[in-house]
Design a protein that fits this description.
InterPro entries: Pyridox_Oxase_N, Split_barrel_FMN-bd
Protein name: Pyridoxamine 5'-phosphate oxidase family protein
Radius of gyration: 15 Å
Largest sheet: 8 strands, antiparallel
Distance between the termini: 37 Å
Strand content: 35-45%
CATH architecture: Roll
CATH superfamily: Electron Transport, Fmn-binding Protein, Chain A
Structural class: alpha+beta
Helix content: 10-25%
Pfam families: PNPOx_N
Number of helices: 3
CATH topology: Pnp Oxidase, Chain A
Shape: globular
């Protein structure tokens, strides 16, 4: 069983989650109760107790959290794997000022656990590349992060 570290994000994790990071988001499938996992890059820690995410307005995740709001975000970075559990809700149907149809989801942090295996340490940050138009990607990123910070 993972050790409970805290009921809030520490300062390093808040700072780490200020720009695009690859995280996984686990929710409970509304139809069959199984785990449902998504990879997400538009995530922002607004403070030590709140995460905000931009999610496609058609995503099944929105149905899942409407039925059962329990979620876990797994962050791979800062040398370790961190599981952040909490309660999620859609706080806006469409993020203001965004060309994409993105809903805003807010997670209230309940527990933060280090879930890295014993003796393990991450030595590299995850890196990804966007495979579509770079200028358009930068535009979307700016719009989404501006909206998540409101």
């Amino acid at each position: 069983m993972a050790e409970q570290v805290s009921n809030q994000l520490d300062e390093n994790l808040v700072n780490f989650l200020q720009g695009e990071r690859i995280v996984t988001l686990a929710s409970i499938d509304a139809e069959n109760g199984s785990p449902n996992i998504l990879c997400i890059s538009w995530v922002l820690a607004t403070d030590s107790t709140t995460l905000r995410l931009a999610i496609d307005g058609r995503s099944k995740l929105l149905l899942n959290i409407a039925k059962d709001d329990r979620v876990t975000v797994t962050v791979l970075g800062l040398g370790t794997a961190t599981a952040v559990t909490g309660r999620a809700k859609k706080y806006v149907d469409k993020l203001e000022g965004c060309a994409l149809n993105m809903a805003g989801v807010e997670i209230k942090v309940e527990a933060v656990r280090d879930v890295m295996f014993y003796g393990g340490k991450l030595t590299n940050e995850l890196v990804f590349d966007k495979t579509y138009d770079k200028a358009l990607a930068e535009k979307y990123d700016a719009e989404i992060y501006s909206a998540l910070r409101k």
